[in-house]
Design goal:
Number of helices: 8
Distance between the termini: 14 Å
Oligomer: single chain
Order of helices and strands: EEEEHEHEHEHEHEHEHEH
Strand order of the largest sheet: 3-8-7-4-5-6
Structural class: alpha/beta
Largest sheet: 6 strands, mixed
Number of domains: 2
Helix content: 25-40%
CATH architecture of the largest domain: 3-Layer(aba) Sandwich
CATH class of the largest domain: Alpha Beta
Shape: elongated
Number of strands: 11
């Protein structure tokens, strides 16, 4: 019996899966006075890519949402202050170790899943937000023909929402979610395995055992 196919709905690929880019990303360049900020908040590698469009770029030390995001920021010469566990809410405690006089810049997507910045602003932290990219469902995820007994890995709530625009889950599908926020975006009747760590590698390892 041939092994079940593993479909990965993500911006990043993995060699052991059928990679379906879940989103088409458009980077933006809103005006930013980088010298006005002490620190950055970065929750996506797409935000880091958007920084490459700026001629006046000054890299401030940053708190990054995950190890992969931190690695991408270091690759462009940025200093990483701290790293979250993959969830925006994990950054609240990180920021709270800094003086409220500090000025933060959150480089974000047009649509976000976490309200962690609003929580911090309500606590008195000065955090400006700049939308540096937006995303929409890719034609690839809308058109993909998924086998009925496949294993499906979802890496964001948006990847789930895009899949559900044109697909439904069969009883034979096995589903892996990169974290609880992604899991919560899935229909309640879909049995889901949640990755041990918020990484594609962790998800693929689980998928290979199903």
């Amino acid at each position: 019996m041939p092994p079940q196919k593993i479909y990965l709905f993500s911006l990043s690929a993995h060699p052991d899966t059928i990679h379906i880019p879940s989103l088409d990303v458009e980077h933006r360049s809103p005006e930013i006075e980088f010298a006005n900020y002490d620190y950055f908040l970065i929750t996506s590698k797409q935000a880091i890519k958007a920084l490459e469009n700026y001629d006046n770029l000054l890299l401030a030390p940053a708190i990054c949402v995950s190890a992969k995001t931190a690695e991408a920021y270091q690759n462009i010469g940025g200093e990483v202050l701290d790293v979250g566990d993959g969830y925006g809410k994990s950054l609240i405690a990180k920021v709270e170790t800094y003086d409220k006089k500090s000025k933060w810049l959150y480089l974000r997507a047009q649509s976000i899943a976490s309200d962690f910045v609003a929580v911090l602003q309500n606590k008195g932290y000065t955090i400006d937000e700049k939308i540096v990219y937006k995303s929409e469902c890719s034609q690839a995820i809308l058109d993909v023909d998924v086998e009925e007994d496949a294993i499906l890995i979802f890496t964001s709530p948006s990847s789930v929402k895009c899949f559900l625009k044109t697909h439904s889950f069969s009883k034979k599908h096995k589903v892996v979610a990169i974290g609880t926020t992604t899991q919560q975006a899935l229909p309640e009747n879909v049995s889901t395995q949640v990755c041990d760590a918020s990484s594609i590698e962790s998800c693929v390892k689980i998928a290979q055992t199903l």
